[in-house]
């Protein structure tokens, strides 16, 4: 590995071009890739956000190489350029598994002919397994999702839609908060009775939803529809003053938990001001970051 810009017991930060620095990392050396690459829309007039790097199959092929078999890749994108990034990821050999949609309502339209951006998609991809999924998990410790560590506050299965409070929310939600708006439109609903029941048969096969004879407890709770989804505060460290696309630390910790085994290693080839690395550290994981621009690397350090 090249000489690091920063290193401690959990975090290593490399300064330089992402593709070049990735080539210095060993094969199958990381458990997950979680990153927020350039959106290729020239955000805030920044030249680094319009280089085309997010569309580089060669870059994503390096991510594939350093991932362990079965390891997941999560990457943010912009709504109008996300598809090209996903195609490059797929062309590199990763399998597209899903997409997560982060609803935040914090965006602003770039002009009178554009809509206000209210969400950002996150691709969920995976390096193909060696053999069966179960065999890959047994051999490499990755391949599945850590459901129990990422359940909603009401104990529900993690969803591929994430809600974030408005920045102005305090003890009560602001007028245009996505969480409050979701509950306003749904109204109060009750889910089940809280009864314990035994399934007479399986539902939709055995795909993680249970087997015949399983005991199931219905929720028996009431509230708005927001309780079905993970919810975060729009808090980031560093803040958007440090970097124009900083993400909430709580959201990044949730993503780390979702795809990283305990004590595993997360790679972020577009570190920016370091939120992914902070999230990995706070979750007890190791992290390797790459950042091309020294001012942002300095903030992360």
State the fourth-level CATH superfamily of the largest domain. Vaccinia Virus protein VP39
Poorly predicted sequence stretches spanning 5 or more consecutive residues: 201-208
Distance between the termini: 18 Å
At CATH's second level, what is the architecture of the largest domain?
3-Layer(aba) Sandwich
User: What is the oligomeric state here?
Assistant: single chain
Number of domains: 2
The name of the CATH topology of the largest domain is Rossmann fold
- Mind telling me the CATH class of the largest domain? Alpha Beta
- Cα-atom radius of gyration: 20 Å
Structural class: alpha/beta
**Strand adjacency order, main sheet:** 1-2-14-13-3-4-6-5-7-12
Strand content: 15-25%
Determine the number of helices (DSSP H or I, runs of at least 4 residues): 8
Number of DSSP strand runs: 14
What is the average of the pLDDT values?
89
Q: What's the overall geometry? A: globular
User: What is the makeup of the main sheet?
Assistant: 10 strands, mixed
The percent of residues in helical segments reads 10-25%
What sequence of helices (H) and strands (E) makes up the elements?
Answer: EEHEHEHEEHEHEEEEEHEHEH
How does this structure look, described?
This protein is an alpha/beta fold. The chain contains eight helices and 14 strands. The strands form three sheets. It has a ten-stranded mixed sheet, sandwiched between helices. Strands 8-11 form a two-stranded antiparallel ribbon. α2 crosses α3 and α6 (249-259) crosses α7. The model is unreliable at 201-208 (pLDDT under 50).
